Structure formats: C-alpha cells, structure tokens
Inverse folding.
C-alpha cells in the first residue's frame, strides 16, 4: 500500500561563497551538508546558515541538484 511519492526528500546543501570564489583560491574545498526537507511545506529551494569549515564562519548554504 505505497502512497507514491514521499513527502520527505534528501537534499544537499552547498556553501554559496565557496562556489562563487572558486576552489583554487585560499579554500581547500567546498562545504556540503546532507539534510532532509518536506516537499509539501518547502516547495522552493532550501537555504540555511551553516558553518563552513573552509571559510571559517557561518555562511548561507543553498540546495543543489544531485
């Protein structure tokens, strides 16, 4: 008795400042977090302030496609 598409989906959050600055500068990589969101409550792309270990501060992490 499956309901079809699940409401909860797994999303990947990526640091927006690391992507803009490029990996070749001072930073050694791009910060990524894996989390879940409810598709019915949050239909738009998710953006959260998380700690970026490469920027050494809290930055906005946006949802990316897999």
């Amino acid at each position: 008795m499956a309901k079809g598409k699940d409401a909860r989906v797994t999303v990947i959050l990526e640091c927006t400042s690391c992507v803009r600055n490029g990996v070749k500068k001072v930073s050694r990589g791009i910060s990524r977090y894996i989390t879940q969101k409810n598709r019915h409550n949050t239909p738009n792309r998710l953006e959260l302030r998380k700690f970026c270990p490469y920027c050494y501060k809290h930055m906005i992490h946006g949802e990316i496609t897999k």
